[in-house]
Structure formats: C-alpha cells, structure tokens
Amino acid sequence: MGGPLEGIRVADFTWVWAGPTCTLQLAHMGAEVIRMESMRRVCTLRMLPPWPDGQPGINRSGYFNQYNQGKRSIQLDISKPEGVEIAKHIVAMSDIAVENFASNVIDRLGLGYDELRKVKPDLVMISMSGYGRGGPESGYVSYGPAQVPLSGMSQLTGYAGWQPMHVGMSYGDPNAGLHAAFAVLSALFYRERTGKGQYIDMSQQESTIAVLGEGFMEYAMNGAQPPRNGNRVAHMAPHGVFMAAGEDRWLSIACADDEEWEALCGVMVRPELARDPRFQKLADRKANEDDLEAEITSWTLMQDPLEASERLQAAGIAASPPLMNRELSEDPHLATRNFFVEREHPEVGIRQHAGIPWRMSDTPCEVRRAAPVLGQDNDYVFGELLRMSGERIADLKARQVIY
Amino acid sequence: MPERALQGLTVIEHNRTGAASYASKLMADLGAEVIKLEPPAGDPDRNLGPFPGGVPHIEKSGTFLYLNCNKQSVTLDITTDSGRQVLDSLLRDADVFIHDIPPAEVGSLSLAYERFCQTNSRLVWTAISPFGESGPHRDWKAYDLTTLSAGGWTWLNGWPGHPEMPPLRPFGRQSAYQAGVNAALATMGALFARLRTGRGQHVEVSAQECITAILEMTFAFWPYMNTPTARWGQRPIHPIDFFQCKDGGWIFVLCVEEHQWQRLVELMDTPEWTQWDVAANRFVRASNWDALRPFMEEWASQWTTDELYRAAQAKRIPFAPASTLGQLLDSEHLKARGFFVEVAYPDAGKITQPGAPFKVSETPWEIRTPAPTIGQHNEDILGERLGLSIAEIRSLNGAKVA
Do strands A250-254 and A318-320 pair parallel, antiparallel, or not at all (unpaired)? Predict the structure, then answer.
C-alpha cells in the first residue's frame, strides 16, 4: 500500500496559498488531487517569483511549484455553465472538494455544497474563506498576509516599543491549510464509519486566532493587551537572538532553568556570571535582562553561530542560528533526513523543494511528481476519467471551456 | 450513529512542549476521548502561565487551560517501571499514543513503538520531536525560539533596513502549534489507513521540518534564483505595508491583483497615479516603494483605522486592521459567527477564549469539559478502568496525589 489516502480523489478548486496547502497534505498522503485551473483566471502563485533566471512563466514559479507538488492540473473555465457541469462530473467521481474563494463565490458559480451533494451525496467539502460564512464581514476579501494583522498576531509581535509587525510570511495561509487538512481527514474518517459526508466552513481569521490562545488567555485573566516584547518571554531568561561575528549573523539561545544558564556560563568561560547576584535565579535574570543580554552578546559577537551552536548543544543548551534559505538548503541534518524533494519538471528541471514533515512506517508518504504544468492532465481527466471523445475535447477546447 | 466525528477513539497523550497537547486538543474537540498522562509534578505547561495577576498557580496557567479542555488527567511517572506497566495497560486498549518526548529519552525509557505494537497492533503511535528521530541534530535540545530559528522562520521576521535589530520570534509557541496540527493530521491519516489495513503504525513528526515546509516563497528563492532571503521575507509585489491612522491604530495595506490596485487609486482619488511609471504594476511598485510610500502614508493618516478598513473592503480591496485582542473580542462579525466560547474553570473562573478553528455541519466542534485539574481522573482511569486500588494509585504517584 502507498500513502494512507491511496484511492481517494480530491476535486481541488483552490488557488493562491491557503487552499493549495490543504490539498498538498492530501497529495502527500497519496490522494489523487485534481486542480481545476484556467487561463481565464491563472492561479496567483503561478504569476509570482521566484522564477529560474528571473524569467517569469506560468509554469516556472518556485512558489507555485512548492505547494502543488504531487497534484494533477486540468484547464476548466468554471465561469461557463458547461465548465460547471464538467466540474460536477469530476466532483461526482471524487471524495473531497476543497475551495478557498471569498465566501459565497463558490455558490454564485453554482458549485456550492448544496449543488455538489446532489451529484455526490457523501461528499466531504471544505470552504476556506478569509472570514467564513455568515456574519457582517463574510463577503470581505482577504489574503494570508492580511490575516496576520487581522487575527491579532501583528499587535502581539514586535520589538518592545516599536509598531506592530508582520511575522515575515503570510502565516494565515499555511496555518489555515493545515487545520483544513485535519478537518477534512476527520470528516473523511467519520464518512468511512457512517456513510455520511459533511460540509466544513473555515474562516482563516478564526483558524489564525486559534493559534494565539495564550494571548487571549492573558487578556481574559488580566484585562490587558500583552505588550510586544521582542524575543523575551516571561518563563525563560536568557531567551533571545544574539548578534554573532560576521555581517548579519545571529544566534538564538534559550535557557529554561538555572542549570542550563550555568552551563551557558561555562561555555562562555564566564563561570562567575552564574554566581552574579543579578543572574542567579530566573527572577534575577528577568529583572536584569538588559545586563544579561549585554553579557551574552559580548561573547556571541566573537562567535561563528554554527560553530557556537554545536558547542552549546554539546553542553545541553538549546541554541541554533536563525537559518536562512541557503543554510536550510545546505543543512546537513535535513539532508541526512532526506527532507528535500527533487523531481523532474519539464520547464524548471530539477529543483529542491521542501518535503513532508512527517513519516509513516506502514503507509509511507511521498511526493510522487513535481507540481503540474497548467493543463498537464487534461487528457487523463477528460479522456480517461470522464471518457470524453477526442472530438468532444477538441470542441470544448475550441469554445474555451477547456481553457 | 456517533454524534461526533472522532467519537469512540481513545487517545493517550503525554506533553512536554505544547505540541502533543495541541494535537490531542484538535482531536478532543471533535469528540475523541483523550487521557493526558502528566508527571506527578504536572504537565510543564502548568508552570508556563499566563496567570491571573501574574501569580503562578498550577491550576491557573492560561497556556495549559487553553490546550487541555475536553481531556482527562492522570498523573503517572512513566520514568519508573511501575509507571510504564500502567502505560502498557493503557496502550493495550488505546487507538493513539501521541507524545513529544525527546528521542534520546524515549530510548532510555524503553518506550519504543516496536515493543508496544506487539500487544496492540492497531495502535497509532505519533512521536513529535524538534528535529525528528534521525540525523546529526536528533538529540539537540530545543525550545520554541530555537526550533523556529532552525526551521527558518525567525530569520524572516524582523524589520528590513535595521541591521542592528535581531531576527524575531512571532508571538506564541508557533513551532508547537505547527508540530501539533501536523501531528494531528498525520495521525488522522494513519487512522484512516487503519480502517483498511487493520493495522496501526508509527508516525514521526519533526517540528523543524513543519516550519521549513511553510516558508512561503522564501525557501524557493535559493534553489530557483540563488537569492538569499531577508527580513520580512520576499515582498515582490506592493503595496504590502502598515500605516498608522489618525486614531493611532494601524492599517495593513495590501493589493495582490492589479484590479484591486486600480480600485485603490479610485479610493485615494489620485487618478494621476495611473500615469506614473513608478506605479505601473505590482512589481514596479515594489521596486519604487520608497518613493510611493510617503504619499500613501500621508493619505492613510487622514482616516480612522475602521473607516479606512470599511471603505477599502467596500471596494473589495483586501485591507485589514492590526486588531487588538479587545477589538477581536468585541468584533460584531466574530460575535455573529459565535466564535469565542466561555469556559468555566474550577480555579481560574470564567474565561472567554478562542473557539472552533472550523465549523463542521454534521459533527460538532465543542468544549464539553474544562481542562482537568491535576490527576482529576486518576480514580476513574487507574481505578475503575484498570482496576488498581487506591493504595496502588497512591504508591504510583508518591505522596503528591490523593
């Protein structure tokens, strides 16, 4: 047996990043994911960099190719009634449907759950809109980058005394995608036991808020917005990212208890710091955190961060440089684990992509093929699965239903 | 027919980092029975806070309470032989064991999956660790900050143009949340496979890889263009920025598609911008952002945050406010959707907290019980279910638990 979802088919109406992250997980598990795309409305990610040699092209985006590995792609214009009918045939042969348009767009297209369950009564369907169905902001438009401020994460993240910050990536998207995949699998498990499908309404705003639980708990308990506080946390000190030798080189260090702090002092060859009354206990270190960080920085400034991490780890201290893309790409640990995936792609050749962050012993998961070029699986889906004649396909192409 | 999606599943959980707790929370909230095994001193998250008034209390840690509703708590020292015998008995009838014990400790405790699957071949064993169960960094120590750093997120977060400021953590233990949600979905995959094969399996989750897998387009910039990423990642299209409004709040300004930009130009009432070469398209605007930014900053400062948010959305431009927690709790939209839930905790009192991350039509997401007090279910589980006497339960846990 291959992946756990071998034999499961997904009608994939998603685009941009959130929805494709959901269906990526299903593809990783062996489901056959059929992306319905169209030249009429090319997926945003296909139009974004990076592109090899900086040359754009709808099949050349590393952004698209990362999050659509292992999927199939067909061209189908679902703004046309015939396109909608064909999409319904695909849904009828599928187990799962996933979409992430703004709320209610899928209904206006005639592909809402109430329509789709007519052709596939036990369908598991998820809508992943920015704001969810119902409520006064339901029709608002949203993208992952905006979910970071909208959910409250920006007001909670940042340097002390600075303005609210972004978090460096459009976190609302992948976080929604992963929660959506969990929800879909739970519903699929239920369907397998009961024969009943169901509809899942996800709001990306709400799924982002769900991972800020400790902030809301603090607000509820103490009635105040937790202040932005850089890399510091209440329960550990030191807990920071310290400047290291070289240009823009840094080292993250966190000590959870006095023992780890004492070990850090040993590696820094500053054993007296552990006995310094300013730094003996966590409360002391929290009260004198500026001094504490200055002492550590005077050491890290002289250190190569990778080499220092090795020595700190050997002494039982949690440390790592903040790795950039190149360092991840060349990371010996990730390489040993075969985390990265390289598959032949007709337009970009063999490129390195992030792989699957979990391993299963009995039903191994794998990336079966590179991300699809647009319309790569037209013949397979329209010809083999839907049994359309060559004439019919040519006619649909001529009338830009297959487009 | 079961009412809840995961009803009938028994999950045994042991948490160290928040990741195991979040994974089993996702399952508990959909109806799985989750038995949480805490060391006699309690799950470490009980010491984490936040606490009411900042005063530590083992039953009032906000992090613990949020992550552990709908679960049962059993105290059990799994570092002792007698504790492990009890774990054996619990796993014999369980569907899932989910834990985030570091791999080296798993070895020294003889907690190998291979041993347990002999007695329960249907068991799904989900092991979360910072770096996975192989590779040269397998036994590296990690906390959230260093895991996020090793995964590549910290590097992306910070303020461009400020080389004196460090790479920055996002709020909350996001490596734990991400490892948790990945563990939950991989566990569901394994449970789905079990419906067909009849067999459980071992599932391994690396928190570092969970982060590296979601770095937007920034990772690909290396293999595709040999371009290193920088703070705030890559922002190839603009506008994407924050501006302060006249009420002191912050608006997040974003246009992804050109038609959104065209409507923004209408909203700004600056038709001449359509003629400007420096604003010709989203990529050009990115390279000329230093020139364009002051104009938009000035314009945004003439609005209140809410007015500008509503006005932009009325034209289908995807702006968003930088919400405070209070604003979210007061949001008419989130109220209409019934998102926040109130939970009454025995010691911490009533708390309004985030609810369902998704709404399921046939099988509810729900909070049935507040987070358990430490060892609250010792007698139910160890006594009634496993048949241990009160004296045996006490001896298992030393003097700490009644």
Answer: antiparallel
